[in-house]
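Severity: low
Component: inverse-folding endpoint
Summary: output formatting inconsistent between runs
Steps to reproduce: submit the following structure tokens with default settings.
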């Protein structure tokens, strides 16, 4: 089983039945173990999900700024920046779910 497949299985198990805050914290706990491409993919998906989410006024750059980081660092998969945006996304669970689903880090999607 590849690292990514293993991470997907672990993340799916951690997210199942969790509140948005619990899911965000579980995902943050795995950011440091993700390879660069996985972090970059998740960062890009989070930025895109914020830009497309009607319940958030602004775009991915605005979300990153509100999380105390910047979109470039998130898109590059910087672990600290990504963790900050994931933490911010817990107040927007639809965004977090959409990004995780797009990256294969969630077993189900409501989208």
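Observed output (run 2 of 3):
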């Amino acid at each position: 089983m590849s690292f990514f497949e293993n991470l997907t299985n672990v993340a799916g198990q951690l997210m199942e039945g969790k509140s948005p805050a619990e899911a965000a914290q579980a995902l943050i706990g795995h950011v440091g173990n993700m390879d660069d491409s996985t972090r970059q993919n998740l960062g890009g998906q989070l930025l895109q999900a914020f830009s497309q989410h009607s319940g958030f006024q602004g775009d991915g750059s605005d979300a990153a700024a509100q999380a105390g980081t910047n979109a470039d660092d998130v898109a590059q998969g910087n672990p600290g920046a990504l963790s900050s945006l994931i933490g911010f996304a817990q107040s927007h669970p639809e965004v977090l779910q959409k990004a995780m689903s797009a990256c294969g880090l969630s077993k189900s999607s409501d989208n």
